[in-house]
Fold this sequence. Notes:
The chain has one helix at 38-47; strands spanning 18-24, 30-36, 51-54, 59-62, 73-78, 85-89. The protein has a 4-stranded mixed beta sheet, with helices on one face. Strands 3-4 form a two-stranded antiparallel sheet. It has a domain at 15-89: Roll (Ubiquitin-like (UB roll)), CATH 3.10.20.810. By secondary structure, it is mostly beta strands. The N and C termini lie far apart (40 Å). The chain contains 1 helix and 6 strands; from the N terminus they run E-E-H-E-E-E-E. A hairpin with a 4-residue loop joins strand 3 and strand 4.
Amino acid sequence: MNMKSIDDINFAKRNGLLPVIVQDRDTKDILMLAYANREAVNNTIRTGNACFWSTSHNKLWMKGEESGNIQPVKEILVDCDSDALVYLVDSSSPACHLGYRSCFHNLLKII
């Protein structure tokens, strides 16, 4: 696996925001999707906890700052285009603001 630095990440491609998939490191469950700018990624690296850019509130947001359901980030994976991330986390608490373990708890009906 190749090592990247934050300077290799293409923040300019989507107006400074990258999609971030949050995945449980052990179970491989997809927990949530959020967005991060350079500041959020730097905060994640600095604190070890998942930080994002809230597109609805237009501000930096640490996952769990209100609920207590923090997501300790153990690894950050960068995709081949350097414009999307995966945060591999150790988390036993719900990721979804509705109390579900994963935000992906609804099934889309396929015809």
